[in-house]
């Protein structure tokens, strides 16, 4: 099968989805030959939809996100997105020699935004992530949660309609992570972005998403999906969140037992 990576703006179906994966597979060559990591993944993300990708460690979640971002090519299948996605990693990846504002301005400059506009736009984005006044702060002056907010603002500076997030809160303490869940939900609702969010934390997946997609262990396949019909705002400890998380966890445990890995 031919492999492509295209922008949905170039197709007649641009308004139908933020991302479309059609029979996507990915394999790598390593010791012992060819290893299949992802197998026949078909998945759509609607405009404005928040989708979480959930699965055991090593199931190919991050690999799939990298394919959607265009950082790698599928071995088979097709990936189409509504414009080029923005990607936020688990590590903030901020440049320590730049201030918070200048880190954001770098993304704006790469987009071709003029120097006279960059400072004002960076200030607006810092305000959006509730870091008003942090423009001149260096990375070492920021807490872990603040650094992730700056990284989020930098991703938003790319002016993409699709935000890809690879376990961005995994390294944070529980309280900071909970606060950033609230902030991400607020920003998603205010901006209308589409979000594809990778996590191995079941409650985080249910806390944030409209739809949870579970990948099986290697090779990664779509094992099951759940629509999350719980009104926002949600809390990790809410009974409906806990109840759905328990159901999903049982299915995930079955996948882990079946493949013997986590």
UniProtKB/TrEMBL annotation:
InterPro entries: AAA+_ATPase, ABC_transporter-like_ATP-bd, ABC_transporter-like_CS, ABC_transporter_ATP-bind, P-loop_NTPase
Domain ABC transporter: 19-244
Single GO term (MF): ATP hydrolysis activity
Keywords, sorted A to Z: ATP-binding, Nucleotide-binding, Transport
A Pfam family of this chain: ABC_tran
Domain of life (superkingdom): Bacteria
Protein name from the UniProt record: Sulfate ABC transporter ATP-binding protein
Organism (species): Streptomyces colonosanans
UniProt lineage: Bacteria, Bacillati, Actinomycetota, Actinomycetes, Kitasatosporales
């Amino acid at each position: 099968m031919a492999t492509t990576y295209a922008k949905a703006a170039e197709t007649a179906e641009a308004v139908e989805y933020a991302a479309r994966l059609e029979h996507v597979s990915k394999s790598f060559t390593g010791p012992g030959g060819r290893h299949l990591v992802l197998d026949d993944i078909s998945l759509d993300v609607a405009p404005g939809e928040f989708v979480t990708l959930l699965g055991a460690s090593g199931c190919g979640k991050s690999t799939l996100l990298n394919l959607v971002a265009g950082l790698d090519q599928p071995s088979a299948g097709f990936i189409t997105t509504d414009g080029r996605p923005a990607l936020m990693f688990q590590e903030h990846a901020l440049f320590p020699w730049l201030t918070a504002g200048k880190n954001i301005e770098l993304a704006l400059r790469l987009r071709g935004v003029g120097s006279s506009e960059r400072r004002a736009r960076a200030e607006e984005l810092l305000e959006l992530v509730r870091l008003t006044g942090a423009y001149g702060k260096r990375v070492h002056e920021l807490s872990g949660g603040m650094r992730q907010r700056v990284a989020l603002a930098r991703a938003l500076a790319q002016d993409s309609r699709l935000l890809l997030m690879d376990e961005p809160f995994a390294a944070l303490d529980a309280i900071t992570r909970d606060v950033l869940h609230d902030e991400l939900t607020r920003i998603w609702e205010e901006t209308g972005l589409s979000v594809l969010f990778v996590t191995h934390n079941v409650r985080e997946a249910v806390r944030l998403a409209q739809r949870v997609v579970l990948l099986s262990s290697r090779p990664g396949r779509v094992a099951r999906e759940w629509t999350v019909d719980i009104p926002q705002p949600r809390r990790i400890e809410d009974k409906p969140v806990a109840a759905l998380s328990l159901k999903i966890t049982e299915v995930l445990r079955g996948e882990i037992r079946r493949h013997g890995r986590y």
